[in-house]
């Protein structure tokens, strides 16, 4: 994948998500971290962890379309991370707690924000084979099978509530380039990358969205 296309994809994804000021970045980081405990999270919990007023936190969370709520007004899904099982399954084990990504790419993006090493399991949608990997904030290790790849596409405009179907449900791990090509055939705009390339793409998305807030994670 060329460096121009590499950066272009990451910027397109970042540009399709809401612009974040310093408060929005802190709220985003803490929402991920709290939801990674495997339970629904209240806006008040996120606000207190982020050091942002509860009113401002509620306002921002309600304005972001890729925040999912339960009937008790708790956050259960946040920009690619879900506290409970969803289909298709991209399982992320965080310190023994299972949470779930909306797409394969989420499993590569979130560990840096959590400052955690996670274990991921996902299924090839063609063969059904299980892909396993260990993701740290620095990279991917223990990829099984080692020739696994990931599918990608460019987002269509803003990532709204329809993004889970139109974008997330098209980003998968595949056990081989062959099964990936079989799946993307006839799906315009799709392409594949290696898992290491995908990791680098998602780290760049983090940098574009969260900026210097990533460098301050250890203090939060």
What features would you describe in this structure?
The chain has 220 residues and is of the alpha+beta class. Helix content is 37%, strand content 22%. The protein has eight helices and eleven strands. The chain has helices at 3-15, 22-35, 43-50, 54-63, 106-114, 163-166, 177-184, 195-210, and strands at 67-69, 75-78, 81-82, 90-94, 97-101, 118-123, 130-136, 139-144, 149-152, 173-174, 191-194. The chain has an eight-stranded antiparallel β-sheet, covered by helices on one side. A three-stranded antiparallel β-sheet has the order 10-9-11. The longest helix has 16 residues, at 195-210. The model has no long low-confidence stretch (mean pLDDT 91).
One letter per element, helices H and strands E, the order comes to: HHHHEEEEEHEEEEHEHEH
Average pLDDT works out at 91
C-alpha-based Rg, rounded: 17 Å
Q: How much helix, percentage-wise, in residues? A: 25-40%
Question: What are the main properties of this structure?
Answer:
single chain, 220 residues, alpha+beta, Beta-Lactamase, 8-stranded antiparallel beta sheet, 3-stranded antiparallel beta sheet, 37% helix
């Amino acid at each position: 994948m060329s460096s121009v296309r590499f950066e272009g994809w990451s910027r397109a994804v970042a540009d399709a998500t809401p612009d974040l000021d310093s408060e929005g970045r802190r709220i985003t980081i803490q929402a991920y971290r709290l939801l990674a405990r495997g339970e629904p999270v209240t806006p008040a919990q996120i606000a207190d962890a982020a050091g942002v007023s509860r009113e401002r936190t509620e306002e921002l969370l309600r304005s972001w379309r890729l925040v999912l709520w339960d009937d008790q007004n708790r956050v259960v899904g946040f920009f690619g991370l879900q506290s409970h099982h969803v289909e298709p399954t991209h399982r992320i084990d965080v310190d023994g707690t299972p949470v779930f990504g909306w797409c394969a790419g989420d499993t590569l993006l979130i560990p840096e924000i959590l400052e955690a090493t996670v274990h991921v399991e996902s299924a090839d949608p063609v063969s059904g084979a299980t892909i396993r990997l260990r993701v740290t904030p620095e990279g991917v290790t223990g990829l099984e099978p080692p020739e696994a790849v990931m599918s990608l596409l460019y987002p269509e405009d803003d990532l709204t509530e329809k993004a889970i179907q139109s974008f997330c449900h098209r980003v998968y791990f595949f056990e081989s380039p062959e099964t990936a090509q079989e799946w993307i055939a006839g799906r315009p705009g799709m392409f594949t990358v290696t898992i290491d390339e995908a990791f680098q793409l998602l780290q760049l998305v983090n940098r574009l969205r969260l900026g210097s807030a990533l460098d301050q994670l250890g203090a939060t």
